[in-house]
Design a protein that fits this description.
- The complex is a heterodimer of chains A (324) and B (434).
- Chain A has 324 residues and is an alpha/beta fold.
- Chain A has 12 helices and 9 strands.
- In chain A, strands 7-6-5-8-9 form a 5-stranded parallel sheet, sandwiched between helices. In chain A, strands 2-1-3-4 form a 4-stranded parallel sheet, sandwiched between helices.
- Chain B folds into 2 domains: 108 residues, Urease, subunit C, domain 1 (Roll); 302 residues, TIM Barrel (Alpha-Beta Barrel).
- In chain B, helix 4 crosses helix 7 and helix 7 packs parallel to helix 8.
- The chains are: A alpha/beta (324), B alpha/beta (434).
- Chains A and B meet through helix 4 of A and helix 6 of B.
């Protein structure tokens, strides 16, 4: 099912065709972002609300930039300046903003499921999940897949869309770190697995979800060997508080066991790509020098955030719903 | 005024009889097929089951402290609509029912309602799980069940001392079985679904470990324990084995645990958030099977009213609990399967809980009448009429409860409470509060 005219709450359940449609649409917006005048009027006159109930710099900036480049009016609610802190319920906050005549809500919230709940409160508005608790961060999963395809296609002298999903077939993706608490991991795994990649995960036992056997992934027992296997290494941010004894004895021990140190990075094949959703804890999950290697795609990921979010806004808000 | 229930099937503990029942001055005065109808309000109940009024061991009436969600009076109205003639007010109010003054207050509020409202006292001061509450003083007021429900008593030494202290008082402790450390602040059942939804899970083991621990403490102390709202097949099996060994343990299950599975949490609808959480299919089915055995002493409601805005919070922040009083009878009837035994129905909903709560004899000190009886002439007139053939649609729009957090909105229901007579008074007739 395409996201045309629908909400984007999760990548779980989206078909390969639906994912490719978003990636291909984003590719057409890359060119817009390289123009001197970086605007297309696809969402002219539409109102997009950006509601970030949780701290975020790059995702918020990226969504708001995307909406503005599509010509939309952006209503932005900053948590500190809103009445949310005065005990107003999520439902009342949404109702207030909805009174401005919204076409879409981009929502970031610390609670899993908040985006889906909001979508029930305002069924006439398209809801785009910009990260909900430990559940999903769909646009991050999309831009990770987009960036990987872009780089792999360029190596073959092709554009990403010319390759469809072929470069994901059998692609060996290793996702490392706090899988249990990571919305990025859930979205990445859904995207990569649906596009045809083989996904393995490496994490301390406490940072694996309780029922990982039901996920479309394999758990690796030897992280160092898996690094030699991988075509793509997806690093995740380790929340500092997870490494203070409750889940992992210490940050140092995490780095010792699962950090991408220079020593471990030497085991990677030269063509292996490294991704990280940011913000990085340099020296914890990734060594600072490794993060700056040419194979680390971190800055491409950030710049691809805008075209991916333009594509998502365009498809969900402006594109007509499919009849199927 | 005399009331005659005419033409119903009167359900005794082991047999049923097609007979009329006449009620006057709070007691059953006559039974038979030719009772005197002069000056009587005659209610035709042919096709219906006539049984002892239902008894809930587990009712959150929210008074004092959260009267915006429910109070004793509104909870009693909801209970009457559900066929209940006796409720047990749980002590997790604000403040907790941990003293003579607070227990007396709720008993007095209960005495203003047509139903009997028994009170469960707290085991520990403020339900904090540290110091024993004055159980002997509360027992002297007629309190027969003590619990810190909402959470269980976590410290095993405190629970041991509570069992030892309660034993000579002739009262029973009731435990909310969840090891909160292992439950880890979870908000739904732990498993593949919680992992996919990004919600922290409460593992079944958190419940089962507490059941196991407390069975062993009962063995150690010779005390009495009632296990509240068991939700897994293993929990039930542990209790059944303890009973077989002769330990004095009893347990209850809730309709939501034998009706729903955790799938209901799949769209973050906080109406389905409850502790212990909704489990998987295997556990739900194990509970349904156990309803037909002596492992389960009672179906209770865990009726847990919450103000509507609280259930609109994000799933992880919303309070746990759902309404239950007005639908438990129909849901139990449904879960008993094809051709359900009326004896088992009233065993689970009335006679069993009345035994556990020591509500079978009237207690003049606190003005409580006798419940869960055999409807013989001379017994207190706590009677319910249940129509097993009725079919209806539950709705959150017409609840007697002050709250609306029912998970059964728009659900098709099998069987319906038509009449509730509490202490001889017609409280509900034709499904309408009188």
């Amino acid at each position: 099912m395409s996201i045309r005219g629908s909400n984007l709450l999760t990548l779980g359940g989206l078909s390969r065709e639906a994912l490719l449609e978003i990636l291909d649409t984003a590719e057409s917006f890359v060119e817009v972002n390289q123009r001197t005048v970086k605007k297309v009027p696809a969402l002219k006159g539409r109102v997009v609300a950006s509601l970030f109930f949780e701290e975020s710099t790059r995702t918020r900036l990226s969504f708001e930039t995307a909406a503005k480049r599509l010509g939309a009016d952006v209503v932005s609610l900053a948590v500190a300046s809103s009445s949310v802190k005065k005990g107003e319920s999520l439902r009342d906050t949404i109702a207030t903003i909805d009174a401005l005549g919204l076409d879409a809500v981009v929502l970031r919230h610390r609670s899993s499921g908040a985006a889906e709940q909001v979508s029930r409160y305002v069924p006439h508005v398209r809801v785009i999940n910009a990260g909900d608790g430990m559940h999903q961060h769909p646009t991050q999963g999309l831009l990770d897949a987009f960036t990987v395809r872009q780089v792999l296609a360029a190596r073959r002298g092709l554009s990403g869309s010319e390759t469809g999903s072929s470069l994901f077939e059998g692609l060996r993706v290793l996702i490392v770190g706090d899988i249990r608490h990571s919305r990025v991991a859930r979205s990445d795994i859904a995207a990569y697995a649906t596009l045809g990649a083989q996904v393995r995960v490496a994490a301390p036992g406490t940072l694996l979800p309780s029922d990982i056997s039901n996920w479309p992934v394999e758990v690796v027992d030897n992280f160092d060997e898996a690094l030699e296997w991988a075509d793509v290494v997806g690093l995740l941010r380790l929340q500092q508080e997870r490494g203070t004894g409750a889940f992992v004895p210490s940050l140092e021990e995490f780095t010792f066991t699962y950090g991408l140190t220079q020593e471990r990075a030497a085991r990677l094949r030269p063509e292996t790509l490294i991704t990280h959703p940011g913000p990085m804890n340099r020296g914890v999950e990734v060594d600072s020098a490794v993060a700056d290697l040419p194979s680390a795609l971190i800055s491409q990921q950030v710049s691809n955030g805008v075209p991916i979010r333009m594509a998502v806004l365009y498809l969900t808000v402006a594109a007509p719903k499919e009849n199927s | 005024m005399k009331i005659v229930l005419r033409g119903g099937l009167v359900i005794g503990p082991t047999t049923s009889a097609l007979t009329d029942i006449a009620i006057r001055d709070g007691v059953i005065v006559e039974r038979g097929t030719s009772v005197d109808l002069t000056n009587a309000q005659v209610i035709d109940v042919s096709g219906c089951w006539v049984g002892p009024g239902l008894v809930d061991l587990h009712t959150h009436l929210r008074e004092p402290g959260r009267e915006d969600a429910e109070d004793v009076a509104s909870g009693a109205r909801a209970g009457a609509m559900g066929g209940y003639t006796a409720l047990t007010a749980m002590p997790n109010t604000e403040p907790a029912l941990d003293s003579v003054a607070l227990v007396s207050f709720v008993l007095a509020q209960g005495a203003k309602t047509p139903l009997d409202v028994a009170v469960a006292g707290a085991i520990t001061v403020g339900r904090r799980g540290e110091l024993l509450a004055p159980m002997a003083e509360m027992a002297a007021l007629g309190v027969r069940i003590f619990t810190d429900d909402g959470t269980g008593v976590q410290n095993p030494l405190v629970m041991r001392r509570a069992l030892e202290y309660a034993k000579p008082l002739g009262v029973r402790l009731a435990q909310h079985c969840e090891d909160e450390a292992l439950a880890a602040g979870g908000v739904m059942n732990e498993g593949a679904l919680s992992a996919a939804l990004g919600l922290v899970g409460r593992p079944a083991l958190a419940e089962e470990l507490m059941v196991l621990r407390d069975i062993e403490l009962v063995r150690l102390t010779g005390g009495r324990m009632h296990f509240l709202h068991l939700s897994t097949g293993r929990s039930i099996a542990l209790v059944a084995a303890a009973k077989a060994e002769g330990l004095d343990v009893t347990c209850e299950v809730m309709p939501h645990h034998f009706i729903f599975t955790e799938e209901r949490c799949g769209h973050y609808d906080a109406q389905f958030k409850v502790h212990p959480p909704l489990r998987g299919e295997l556990d739900r089915d194990a509970l349904r099977v156990a309803l037909h055995t002596s492992a389960i002493d009672a179906v209770a409601t865990d009726h847990a009213p919450h103000a509507p805005q609280l259930k609109e919070l994000p799933f992880d922040e919303a309070p746990a609990g759902m309404l239950g009083l007005e639908h438990a009878a129909s849901l139990t009837y449904e879960a008993l399967g094809e051709d359900p035994s009326p004896q088992q129905f009233f065993e689970l909903l009335s006679r069993g809980p009345a035994r556990v709560g020591q509500l079978r004899e009237h207690d003049r000190r606190v003005g409580l009448s006798a419940h869960g009886g055999d409807l013989s002439v001379g017994s207190d007139a706590n009677v319910v009429v249940f129509d097993p053939a009725a079919r209806w649609i539950a709705s959150k729009e017409n609840l007697a409860s002050r709250a609306t957090n029912t998970p059964y909105d728009a659900r098709a229901m099998l069987g319906k409470v038509r009449v509730t007579i509490a202490k001889g008074r017609l409280v509900v007739n034709e499904g309408v509060l009188q």
